[in-house]
């Protein structure tokens, strides 16, 4: 390239998982072009995901005004832009900044066809591979080191914050999701936790707290089930639930995931945070399919119902089942094996 590159802007506005999946890009840029300043632009609510990243020199935040962001970015005089979001706002930003850029391929048409027509399409590259492809012209190659996630020291959770039952090891279950069709119904969550048969910490936001309490109450010991305890012990029943939903911030929840034995997760950002820590992941899928966003560079097992012609019913998830039966989750076999702890 003729012009010397001194400063690069990487853009990814949202969301948690997608931003975590950009981490190999900024790492490879910084390590392979150490003299270049790497700036990252995202939404204000996702600042935590990038502001502790040692490979990023400066973070720019999108608030309520795209025009203000344009003004802030213009004074930086970037030499190159990597657009890893690819929407109308990033198009307008690039138009305003008027510098050379590369944009990642979202495969919009292929994803839409897959979700609406019974087509057998070729398996696409993982989204990380498509992110990395934007840097080919810069001579940057993937280093094979997977994803990164950096936790602030203040967000390390003390062991004595957890119940005694969970201090010697636990399974993390990231029970949230961005759409109805991406989450197990409560009765299947109960089945899953019973099959896990270990101490479990539920990971999620305030919106997941109520379902978390339903799980806690189902498995909770009380004076009313004391007569059953001997039988439960004979059956080797060990499920004990700690509801962490809404009790921990993002960094603390990530710390709990990092220190878990294994992770169960819906199609959510915590699956990718778990992959950054090289956890063993059991990835649960319903109305969407794991062609593009499966856990990257870590051991994982996909839990899904493969016997439905109506999957996928959408590319990003739905708020109801279009067939009204929700068999993708209700009849998910949840077929997995966990060695005895």
| Radius of gyration from CA coordinates | 22 Å
Give the name of the CATH superfamily of the largest domain.
Glycogen Phosphorylase B
Element string (H = helix, E = strand): EHHEEHEHEHHEHEHHEHEHEEH
Low-confidence runs: none
Q: Characterize the main sheet.
A: 6 strands, parallel
Task: Assess the beta-strand content as a share of residues.
Answer: 5-15%
Mean pLDDT: 92
Q: Which oligomerization state do the chains in this entry correspond to?
A: single chain
CATH architecture of the largest domain: 3-Layer(aba) Sandwich
Detailed description of the structure:
This protein is of the alpha/beta class and 341 residues long. It has 2 domains: 7-138, Rossmann fold (3-Layer(aba) Sandwich); 155-330, Rossmann fold (3-Layer(aba) Sandwich). The chain contains 12 helices and 11 strands. The protein has helices spanning 16-20, 23-32, 66-74, 88-97, 108-116, 127-133, 186-196, 209-219, 229-234, 250-258, 269-276, 327-330, and strands at 7-11, 37-43, 58-62, 80-83, 101-103, 171-174, 199-203, 240-243, 263-265, 281-284, 300-303. It has a 6-stranded parallel sheet with strand order 8-7-6-9-10-11, sandwiched between helices. It has a 5-stranded parallel sheet with strand order 3-2-1-4-5, with helices on both faces. α3 runs parallel beside α4 and α7 crosses α8 (209-219). The chain is globular, with a radius of gyration of 22 Å.
């Amino acid at each position: 390239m003729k012009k010397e590159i001194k400063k690069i802007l990487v853009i990814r506005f949202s969301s948690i998982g997608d931003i975590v999946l950009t981490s190999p890009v900024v790492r490879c840029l910084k390590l392979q072009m150490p003299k270049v300043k790497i700036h990252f632009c995202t939404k204000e609510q996702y600042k935590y995901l990038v502001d502790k990243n040692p490979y990023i020199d400066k973070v720019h935040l999108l608030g309520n005004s795209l025009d203000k962001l344009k003004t802030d970015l213009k004074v930086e005089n970037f030499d190159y832009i990597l657009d890893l979001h690819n929407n109308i706002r990033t198009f307008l930003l690039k138009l305003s900044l008027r510098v050379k850029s590369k944009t990642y391929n979202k495969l919009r048409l292929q994803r839409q066809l897959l979700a609406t027509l019974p087509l057998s399409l070729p398996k696409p590259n993982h989204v990380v591979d498509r992110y990395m492809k934007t840097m080919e012209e810069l001579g940057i190659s993937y280093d094979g080191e997977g994803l990164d996630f950096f936790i602030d020291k203040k967000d390390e959770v003390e062991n004595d914050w957890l119940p005694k039952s969970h201090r010697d090891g636990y399974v993390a279950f990231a029970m949230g999701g961005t759409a109805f069709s991406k989450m197990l119904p409560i009765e299947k969550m109960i089945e899953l936790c019973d099959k896990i048969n270990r101490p479990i910490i539920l990971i999620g936001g305030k919106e997941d707290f109520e379902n978390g309490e339903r799980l806690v109450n189902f498995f909770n010991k009380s004076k009313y089930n004391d007569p059953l305890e001997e039988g439960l012990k004979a059956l080797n029943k060990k499920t004990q639930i700690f509801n962490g939903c809404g009790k921990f911030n993002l960094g603390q929840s990530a710390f709990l995931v990092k220190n878990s034995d294994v992770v169960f997760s819906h199609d959510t950002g915590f699956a990718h945070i778990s992959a950054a820590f090289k956890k063993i992941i059991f990835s649960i899928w319903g109305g969407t399919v794991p062609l593009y966003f499966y856990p990257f560079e870590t051991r994982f097992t996909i839990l899904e119902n493969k016997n439905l012609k109506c999957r996928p019913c959408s590319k990003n998830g739905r708020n109801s089942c279009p067939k009204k039966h929700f068999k993708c989750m209700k009849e998910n076999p949840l077929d997995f094996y966990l060695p005895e702890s």
